[in-house]
């Protein structure tokens, strides 16, 4: 696992103390989608949450294959094919993709009256 952290092309990023695996692809950083979702929401089931995001956002559902690519990402157990995205998915407006109607708390900076 130490090799993963030492290689600058696969160095793990931290966001709010949560690890986000990333890799260089086409000369830019690509991030593991599940890691990004888990860093932004208060849930343990990123796969179900991603499915709900796509159901709620028809544009995201339609464009999913253009913004998310399966890439081989080094992990402690060896390389794994994981869904990754560049910053396109991260820059989407938070409430278009992340909302407490899925049973999670709002993220910081919420402008809706969602409450905790």
Question: How would you summarize this macromolecular structure in one to three sentences?
Answer:
The protein is α+β, with helices and mostly antiparallel strands and 116 residues long.
Provide a descriptive summary of the structure in words.
This protein has helices spanning 2-6, 33-40, 46-56, 58-67, 87-90, 94-97; strands at 13-15, 18-20, 22-25, 28-32, 69-73, 80-85. Mean pLDDT is 74; it is low at 1-5, 93-98 and 102-116. By secondary structure, the chain is of the alpha+beta class. A hairpin with a 2-residue loop joins strand 3 (22-25) and strand 4. Helix 3 packs across helix 4 (58-67). Strands 3-4-6-5 form a four-stranded antiparallel sheet. Strands 1-2 form a two-stranded antiparallel sheet. The protein has one domain (2-97). It is 36% helix and 22% strand. The termini are far apart. The chain is globular, with a radius of gyration of 15 Å.
Please give the largest β-sheet.
4 strands, antiparallel
Number of strands: 6
Order of strands, widest sheet: 3-4-6-5
- What form results from the Cα inertia axes? globular
Counting structural domains, the number is 1
What distance lies between the first and last C-alpha atoms, to the nearest angstrom?
36 Å
Which structural class should the secondary elements be placed in?
alpha+beta
Provide mean pLDDT, rounded: 74
Radius of gyration: 15 Å
Q: Low-confidence runs (pLDDT<50, min 5 residues)?
A: 1-5, 93-98, 102-116
Helical percentage = 25-40%
Order of helices and strands: HEEEEHHHEEHH
Classify the beta-strand content into a percent band.
15-25%
* Number of helical stretches of at least 4 residues: 6
